[in-house]
Amino acid sequence: MNSDKHTRFSPGCLHGAVIAFCIALVIGGCGKQADDGPILIKFPHVTAPATPKGQAAERFKEIVEARLAGRVVVEVYPSGQLMSDDDSLDALVFGEVQMIAVSLSKLDRLTHRFQIFDLPFLFPDLATVERFQASPEGSVLLDAMVDKGILGLAFWHNGMKQFGGPVPMRSPMAAEGLKFRIMESDVLQAQVLQIGGNPQKMAFGEVYQALQTGAVDAQENTWSNMYSSKFYEVQDYLTETNHGYLGYLVAVNPDFWNSLPDDIRGELDDIVKEVAAWANEQSLIIDMEGRAKIIESGVSEVVTLTPDELTDWQDAMRPVWQKFEGNIGAELIAAALAARQSGAN
What homologous superfamily is domain 13-344 in, according to CATH? Predict the structure, then answer.
């Protein structure tokens, strides 16, 4: 059986929500509108505007304000300008923001089922991820946290993750003893421990300085994030492992969503789906552009694994699956494996 966490918030969440509330007051209220004014959707996120998420958020804003002119206004706050991912989850529940696109890894504290997206080497590529997310088992995850005040509308891709560090990571042994920055995720913590590393949970906005000062040695991220946030400038080697998936849940507060006029909610839902399809097509292009620009810079070396080296990595990481199977649910992992198998046929 799945064993989701029963607490609604992690320790410190209320403090984060209070901070977010104060920020909302400073910039002009908590999103409540006058009866005759447009509906305001505040949409904070932590990545740069040029990233897949940044571009998708801007496209959502443009389409909404074109089709629902005078009725809905979207304010996008990129690069953590308004709040962190962690604070945005609490702010959404409290109604201080109306939409988020938070890393799937961040949902670990609310439900174990989303841990499936962090299992190393489960999804070999974005096409497999899409097949799983569109499956009955995957699509039901959108509603997995409604009782906690979070309604999923769509999944957005960023890309597949690579390892960056002070040495080429041609084998898991190269990671031993290194301090890895990770997101707030029990699976990612177990992943690093499995290869002998020292996991350090850290907010995205703190990573560049931590790498620069040596507070951490290594990190995992997509090509587009490593390029746009300049992580490659403070990493000697980037090893192309495609070991994990980085994606986002586009979510709203269900009370806010259900309070909208039917026609506006229907149009917004259509736009979300349209933007998701566009964003997920663009994500691979943007990611590969980031990879090419990193290589062109000559600042860090991109290391490509041989098939045997990749197999060694996959074998080393496999025990993480068994560790979390009871939490996630064997049937969910089976659905992901079926999506992978259908792509191989």
Answer: Bacterial extracellular solute-binding protein, family 7 (3.40.190.170)
